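Final paragraph of the annual report: two paired records, presented back to back.
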Amino acid sequence: MRRESRRGSTISKLDRRIALGTRPLLTYLPNPRLLFPHSLIMAKKSQRGLRPWVFSLAFIFVIFASLVSASSPPVASPAAEVELICHTNNPAECYPKLFSPTEEFQVVHDDQDIPPGLHVQLDVQTGKKQAKIYDPSEENPALAGLPVNQEVIVVDPEAPEESEPSIRAGAPAYEPVGMVKAPREKSADFSQALQTVQMAAARRQSVKTSVLDGALQILEDLSHDMYYGLQIAEDAETVHSLFCLLFEGDDAEGEERPFAERVDLLASTILSASVGNNPRALTAIESHWDSITAKQCKASPHSIKTELYYRLAPTSEPGTAYDAEEAEVARIYLAVISGLFKSPKIRAEFLESTGMQSFLQILLRDDGGVWEPRRAKVARIVSDTFLDEDFGATQGLWPTKQQLMAGYCTEEGPQALGDECWEYHLKTISGRAGAPDWSGRLLSLIREAQMPGSKAEKLLKHTEL
């Protein structure tokens, strides 16, 4: 009786725990017999053959519980920390720095990083980008029906540049200027005008002044054309005749005419216009320059070269009538020389002669009158030809002598006309009251040419050696 009451007390406590649901049943039952109600235990005494079945049912229950536990979905692990971009204090407006693609297009922010291999679209009107996971089987309906070109383009590598281009044997010489085409309608008076000028240069009295003026007017009008300028330059006899008319001056049968109608001025204008901005015409004159300048004109005992280079310098007393005439002659000569200076050959010949001394004599003609335009013209020719690269000058050609101190040039005075005294004279001219603008600028250019490292300075060292 005591034993049964103890059992009953044990079962009643177990029933109370089950009712309260404190722990699973299998955890707190030390004996499998306690799994079943009291009636089953009593039946056990009567039927001991059921024990194996009881243990089998318990084992099946445990296996089933483990399978159910394994098939249930695992609890998701907490997401790793993601770097966010927040432009405001509102967390809802934040987005990850690394774009996370899906199978649908999503807007990509400008400051987001896009992983490689995505399908990206760009709206050219709004500038917004969208991206999603790339699907190679997906087709774009906007491209439906368009032809597809699957050709492969092979780009040949560029050939290495050669230091010198290869020129085949017998190829014609390169001409950078090109051919000058003839006009559609040629002038019927051009040939007759050339003959008139040649006759007037040979025998001035055989041609009336009005006829010569008409011929010169025709040539002056046509000489600005590249074709007719080339035709004049290629005719050596015509060029020689124009120089002779230039040196003879104007002879209007005793009549005094306006300067613009003078024969020598028209001849000068034709010569300068023919070679101006016409490289082929300048080359043509250069080709027969020696034969032309070696000849003499009927009215002069000197050659054309001597007349052109030496008659520039003034020789008369300032303020006289002949002084004004010399200033006009210098104007005519300077117009021709300015155009011919573009030829390296003629320019070098001028430097070898006393041409630069004649230029300096014109600059020293400080009378403030008729010579002032000629002085400005000479300063411009010198700077544009030898000193100022901004205007196409070729530096290093002149001056070829180092500038000397004031002592030597002062002792020689006006006779100090060498290249070494240009700076001294220009300093004197620019230091006077009311000095012309060209004097200071020309002085600065000559000083720059003498500076160490300049082309002229290097030429001076080479000449001294």
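The closing record of the year follows.
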Amino acid sequence: MCWFGAPMILLTILLSCGFPSVCEAGSVKDCYRETCMSITYDIHEAVCCGNKLHPQGGLSCCGQKAYNPAAATCCKVKHGNTTIASITLGLGKNVSSCCGLSAYNELNEICCESTIKEKPAPKARCCGAVAIDEDKFLCCGQNNTILTRQSHDEQCCGYEPYNTKTHCCCQTKTGVSKSIKSGSQSSCCSSSISDGDPWIDQGEDGGAEAGDVYNPATGTICCSHFHGSHRQHCCGTEIYQPAAEICCNGHKHLRIKNIHLTCCGIKAYNIKDRDIKCCAGTLYNLSSIGNHGDQCCGSILHNSSSVCCSSEDMELLYSVKPRFKCCGHFYYNTSLWSCCAGKLSPVHCPSQHPNNIINESRLLSLNNLNRNVLCKTMHIGIMESVSLDSIVFRNVLEIHGRNATIKPLPSPHILKISDRCNSPKLIPGKTYLFHNVNFFADFKHYSGTQSLHFIFSKCSNVFSFLNIT
């Protein structure tokens, strides 16, 4: 998210901060349009799986079926020339791994011989089909013999444990053998192999297609589609009139007099309509659902049967589990981990885990605030430093959503907090929205301009002079 570094004047605040271009002429092939059984569709709003069109944004294919990667994971297993795919619900792909055809949460679970096991401790590993605590046990030999670990210096030497500080374990012609180190001995064996941890360096190559060559004096080209009217604005493959129409991700809609339209994905809606809610580009009619208390988690509208964990980078939906809490976008087992300011730490003695260090920290979603909170006094500022009992901000603006005004506050602005661990992870130099001790992320928008526009549009009846869409 791009924010502003200093509160200068309202005009400066409302200047664009790197808005992403939508379907610039010649920059994106066919403007995100594809075909499914001769039906043309926008890939932001539908997906084609097994020659069947599924009209919903944010979906991906898992074999012949469609699923939402934010709330489910697709696992595939190949048998000869056949690939079998299965969907695990309630666990997004960003925090999961596959164990055969089932997905699991690596933070709290482990996959041992294609079977998902609960981790007995934060530092767990598999010993055959059994999950063990690495701090307490060793897994030795090809038969996976589990031995009690007497100290952290113990490792396996064949089927037996040995202390790396006092003994040597060397490869011989008949196998391995251990011997006592002499006082001057710095290394054990005449030669050794360094067993490094495996790693994968992944990179992505980017590319751009060159635009079509044409004479701008004779017409306008929009995503490879030529229009015989010059000096026009593009909206997807079409030209449009910004004063009379609104362009939403390459789809144009007529503006309606006295109705404040804004975009939600490819659709336009009245931002003041309390029966309509936009979740990351997906529009929901709350009156047809029958529950105005449902909240957004990414593009998904969810209720109390699930929990949404959010950090600065993402929002993820999980199925509710006992003794689990949010730490940023992770949903952690409180018997294995403790959370402080968005950072997880292993609990070394799970059975002695005191309740007073079981914390939950996450950034709240600005989009989920009701008007009573959103339209009161909010603040936006750059976080400078943090201590156990206070957070220092600079360049703080006081936002009054109901009357659409902004007031600069003196620097530094010191915010008192009672428990640092219950606050989310905050990064010095970044800008945050906050109200009292609650901190908010605006997952819907890409810039501070859009966030301010969202607050004023929702709250103010006189907000008409800023017509940013």
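The CA atoms of residues 169 and 178 lie 4 Å apart. This concludes the annual technical report; the extension proposal builds directly on these records.
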